[in-house]
Amino acid sequence: MKPSVTASVLPARAVVDALGKRDINVEPVLRAAQLSREALESIDNRLPHESVRRLWEAAAVAARDPSFGVHVAEALPTGAYDVFDYVLATAATVGEGLTLLTRYVRLIYDRSNLHLVVGPRIARLTSRVPVPAPQYDEFSLTLLLVRSRQASGTHWRPDRMTFQHERHEGDHELARVFGCPIAFGAAENEMRFAPSVLDLPHVHPDSRLLTVMTRYADSLLTSLPSRGDVVASVSSTIARQMAKELPSLRSTADVVHLSERTLQRRLAGNGVSYSKLIDGVRRDLALKHIGDAGLSISEIAYLLHFADSTAFYRAFKRWTSEAPAQYRRNLFE
After folding, report:
1. Which helix (H) or strand (E) holds 190?
2. If both were cysteines, with which of 54, 63, 124, 169 could 33 make a disulfide (CB 3.0 to 4.6 Å apart)?
3. Which fold, 229-332?
């Protein structure tokens, strides 16, 4: 059966190349992740995301390097991440580059929920993963920062970083790269920084090349596994219905022209449930609304069809590990 949660071969190739440069035998690491060299040959191949996650962890053990992900990201040659490197580099500003990154990150991991939330005082890049992948997550955020610094020609620093995973080996290398306080065991992976960073100009913007690369990236999005069809379609349907009411399974099934049972079966085949989609849409809308100073907390709770502000408070605390008011203060202060 074809896996429903997939990832690009690019992060797996980065692992294999890094181990090769260290003269470490790659074959046992690939076996531990249940991957073959053949699976990595074509750039168009997609791999089970769980296998990619295991590959990164096994590689760190083989390399005896608890900061393997950080070190690979720092050393990764420009262009090794294909379209992402070029889209980020040719954008006009840091903000445009990061916005495009959130648009195309599903090409790397088709369940990615990376968001850029911008407030008057704080900007945040946030994402959540069902199962933390310490090395892979540290690699991904380190690479994002490194590439943004290279594109802008500035050594900008985040104000704060959080990771979902726990870390017991110390965070000296992460602290060296990010240059800010870092917390672990958080509800989500987050990079927090000043909104002024988004205005930093890139050194070599190229609007013509950017147009070509974004057109190519858009075409790649259409070829992603069915998650892009079923899950994305149902999520957008839920979001539209949320304007009037909290949509039920039956009402959503009617809109997408499926029976309730068929809809549940197709969602389960993509590793999600209807209740999780409802929760995810509510979270996304909550993060959008919380940045609108014209809406009170109680009004946001009403818009998202919570029974009361207390229920919204509990859900928001579960999503972000912060109370709604505190989260908003961090945005506006």
Report:
1. strand 189-193
2. 54
3. Arc Repressor Mutant, subunit A (1.10.10)
Q: Is the pLDDT of residue 22 over 50?
A: yes
Q: How far apart are CA 273 and CA 129, in angstroms?
A: 15
Question: How is residue 252 annotated by DSSP?
Answer: H
- CA 143 to CA 166: how far, in whole Å? 20
Region of poorest pLDDT, from 97-101, 186-190, 231-235: 231-235
Per-domain residue ranges of the chain = 64-221, 229-332
Distances from the Cα of 294 to the Cαs of 124, 289, 319, in angstroms? 20, 9, 22
Q: Are 253 and 237 spatial neighbours (Cβ–Cβ below 8 Å)?
A: no
Tally the residues of the chain.
Answer: 333
Tell me the DSSP string of 274-328: HHHHHHHHHHHHHHHHHT-TTS-HHHHHHHTT-SSHHHHHHHHHHHHSS-HHHHH
CB atoms near residue 326 (< 10 Å): 13
Tokens for 157? 């620093």
pLDDT, tens only, 187-227: 899 999 999 999 999 999 999 999 989 988 887 876 665 44
CB neighbours of residue 39 within 10 Å: 17
Owner of token pair 């009411």:
245
Q: What are all long-range contacts of 287-294, with beta carbons under 8 Å and residues at least 24 apart?
A: 287/115, 287/117, 287/126, 287/319, 287/320, 288/117, 290/316, 290/324, 290/327, 290/328, 290/331, 291/117, 291/118, 291/119, 291/328, 291/331, 293/332
